[in-house]
Write a structure and sequence with these properties.
- With 290 residues, the protein is of the alpha/beta class.
- It has 11 helices and 6 strands.
- The chain has a 6-stranded mixed sheet with strand order 3-2-1-4-5-6, sandwiched between helices.
- α9 packs antiparallel against α11.
- It is globular and about 55 Å long.
Length: 290
Amino acid sequence: MNDLSDREERPERPAEVDGTAHLFHTVRKQIKVLREAAGLSQKELAGRLNVSEDLIGAIERGVRTPQPDLLERADKVLGARGLLLVAIPDVKEALKKVRTRHPDWFRDYATAEAASEAIHQYAHQGVPGLLQTEQHAREVFTQRRPLLHEATIEKRVQDRLSRQQIFERWPSPTFSFILDQNLLHRQVGGPAVHREQLQRFVDIGRLRTVELQVVPFERGAHTVMEGSFTLLHPKGRQQIAYHEAYGRPNLITDPNQVRIMAERCGIIRAQALAPDESLALIEKTLGELR
């Protein structure tokens, strides 16, 4: 979820020792630099690669991970002379990694999340980790109390970004995110960081594997005002639930308790705006910030 626990103030290991997130960030930046050097727009590059313009934009913004076959085609189209080709073995290896790289208190959840065939989240206090931008995540961890060591902050940010590779998995899990409208207005990290976060909501909400909805203020009191939670369907296992409160993670496996959480999820989903209305509200909020 939002990893709200503040149990670890010291770095539990060197930040990002395997370099996975940094690798993807570097490749995405290389694609953008090569595209601009070739004098191509995102739409023109998309046409030459036979992919959508949205995909190219999402890759350059860090929302989507560039796949090996796309890198191979892009190297030729952009005249990269092997620059992108040499990254393919490392990209393939990074995509195969399934190990969790999280604090002990969060590891069980991260493992279940990575293996899930469906993930449903309601978020009230903070933006779900799967949806956070890098700068939003860094600000969240920087503001944590007790203060986290700088190396731990960097590690937590990169590990959180690594979880977002689940959007690239195929067959894809089913995703649904229900956001309280207050998340559209809390400017974590300032206006620029918040604009980027709202844009990520839009980008993720447009994925055909995702249903993203907003619970508007005018709904008033509702059934899940107590806080955020997640429902997971790990492959080959029964549905489980998860929530955090004041630094205490709670992974729920009791069938009756999970059923109650599922009922609440269904009710709040029915009270939220439809996905297209939700995206329209997010885009309206984004436009008002400019």
